[in-house]
# Entry
Amino acid sequence: MRLSERVNKMEFSPIRKFNPIAGAAKASGVRVYHLNIGQPDIETPAAFMEAIRGYDEKVLAYAESPGLTVLQDAIINYFKPFGVNVDRSEVLVTSGGSEALSMVFTSILNEGDTVMIPEPYYTNYRTFIAASGGEVTPITADPDKGYMFADEALLEASYRPTCKAIAVVNPGNPTGTILSTEDMEVICRFAKKHDLWVIADEVYREFAYDGRKMVSFGQLEEYADRVIIIDSISKRFSACGARIGFIIAKNKELNAALMKIAQGRLCCPTLEMLGAAALYQLPSDYFNAIRTEYENRRNVLFEGLSAIPGVKVNKPGGAFYMMVTLPVENAEDFLMFLLEDFRDNGETMMYAPAEGFYATPGLGKNEVRLAYVLNAKDLRRSTEILAKALEAYKNR
Ligand SMILES: Cc1ncc(COP(=O)(O)O)c(C=O)c1O
# Structure
């Protein structure tokens, strides 16, 4: 028996593949600070659990494939203040942003097609694209320019005739880069010139700092037929385990293609959709306190890292990740040291090594992604551990 070539080409996720090693450390009584994954410690709003507790049907039935209408309508209302008008036929509820991405790549890619993505990128894109027979065409973004990639010359230089789409995460994971309306125009104009889909992953839409106001790709009406918005409640409402996301697209042909896949997988979990609908009814000031909290965490982590000799860090404008260059040759090897050997008062920390966030061979070996999803005290402690571990690693 043989596996598919597609799956053989895939890699394990650098965000999760070290979890068994961290698990062994934890089983031996070590506390591990998890900065490797975007799992916030912010409480999921009570409205989610209350909506689920309030369910009193006798049968937990399948829902319709596009999602519960109460959730679709809540999403439609959420978008109105952004100036994005959508109707139900343009909202497809999915099992997380992850399923949304899988469905989109299955719908648009043929074997050998490629998707342009600024690197470093959210590593799981590679898996979703490979599962559809495609590959990443990287747009290598310069850390010294804040990882900005919305530059016509850079986009043109990265373009290959195999490209079918350009995918951008805004605000960025892992870079935290935020696009302005002008940047978005540059990307869309380029996409139009080469007839590419624009996959706009906006799962971090609420997390823009320093007073910046977020613009959605959905606001660029001129490009509405090629823009595909990926969204999710995971980060927005700290509800990662609910597995509810959605796709907003105006292109009817694409929506029909997506519906074939959606009908094939029947529907999303009914109870979680009810919970999600309740979340979208929270007052919009819910986000203000959360945003302030993340902005503070960003500042704490940035200050802590900047004080460590040899560490190079970019201050992100949004989302809740930071790309960091460490004074080591191989960030995976140093992570193994953290998890297996290094202990400070019975504690250690964990990050995601960033090599898997690049498609270009050789890049990212000494870089890591940190998620500032823990409270300020834990973040301070994590940077303290990192500083001590770097010293111990150097002196091994
Ligand atoms: C940029 C981006 N897109 C999509 C996802 C998928 O999120 P979920 O499947 O939890 O909705 C994530 C999760 O970290 C992400 O960072």
The first helix runs from residue 5 to 9. The longest strand covers residues 163-169. The mean pLDDT is 96.
